[in-house]
Amino acid sequence: MSETAQTIERLVLEQFRTCSGNNRMTATDDFFNTGGDSFTAVQAATAIAALTGRDLDPSLLFAHRTARALACRLVEDPPATGAAGGNG
Q: Residues in domain Carrier (predicted)?
């Protein structure tokens, strides 16, 4: 896993933990099986998008249910132009 992916994974995991209220969640735990729900998924997606500067539809959390899986998916997408963390 690249350094960028590891950094994003830590950020995603931090938001998953914050939004679900589960500080014991690991990078390979399923968000929805460890305290997350559709409401907290929207909260997490909004926070992650703001912190990474990437567009993040909350539905991606249903397809990529662990911090590791979502981080790998986010690494594939460049930050949005003009967003926080972006290049423009």
A: 2-78
Of the pLDDT bands very low, low, confident and very high (cuts 50, 70, 90), residue 85 is very low
Residue 1, pLDDT score: 74
Find the angle CA(27)-CA(1)-CA(88) to the nearest 5 degrees. 95
Provide the whole-model pTM: 0.86
CB proximity list for 69: less than 8 A, separation 6 or greater: none
- Name the CATH superfamily, with its identifier, for domain 3-76: ACP-like (1.10.1200.10)
Which is it for the CA torsion 62, 78, 82, 48, positive or negative?
positive
Domain coordinates in residue numbering, the chain: 3-76
Local structure of residue 70 (DSSP, 8 states) = H
